[in-house]
Amino acid sequence: MSAKYEKCAFVVEQDLAAGLAMNTVAALSMSVGRFVDGIIGDAVKDGDGEAHTGITAIPLPILKGAATDLRDIVLKAAGLPDVFVADFTAVAQSSRSYDEYIRRTADLGTAELPYIGVAVCGSRSAVNKLTGSLPLYR
């Protein structure tokens, strides 16, 4: 990705158990970290001169929403330029291997997938447009 990203929001299905919600955000974070250039800042040195690995340089709110909200975000974001989307489905979370995930996902259309998490990165206005009405995950 070469666009400048100002914000990345993670939306988790509101009825997921806490452990599954954390797993969902962790999986999405790995994809965002890999595919969104420039999201991670440079290493930071402490007062002793020890380096600490860079962390995200932009806001990362964690929000919650209904499964239909997540599906709508995925579908709406597909038509927006300069917006990166990573999604995570119940199919992915319940598959025992990546090959199983591939096979099971191939049987479902985009609108049929059981989304349990989505990460949306882009300009502040684009991310807010897609996720702005959703509450923080608490």
TrEMBL record:
InterPro entries: DUF2000, Pep_tRNA_hydro_II_dom_sf, UCP033763. This is DUF2000 domain-containing protein. It comes from Streptomyces andamanensis.
